[in-house]
Design goal:
mainly alpha; about 65% helix
Length: about 70
């Protein structure tokens, strides 16, 4: 089992490109929530944590700086 710090580090390991349209990122956010919820239902709390953390990071930190916002 990974530590919470390792899970956070893994969840933050993605590329954000402000050239990609906001609409694509919003669809990605919906997909992340779907994957997180499915992980919870399957009992995979590590993956659920990573997907939820990535969703929050994307929405609050990355998309706030997107040029289309």
């Amino acid at each position: 089992m990974k530590s919470s710090r390792q899970l956070i580090q893994d969840a933050k390991d993605y590329r954000f490109n402000p050239i990609i349209p906001l609409k694509i990122y919003l669809k990605t956010c919906v997909g992340l929530l779907d994957k997180a919820q499915m992980s919870v239902q399957c009992g995979d709390s590590e993956m659920a944590f990573m997907f939820y953390y990535r969703y929050v990071d994307l929405c609050t930190n990355k998309l706030a700086r997107h040029p289309q916002c």
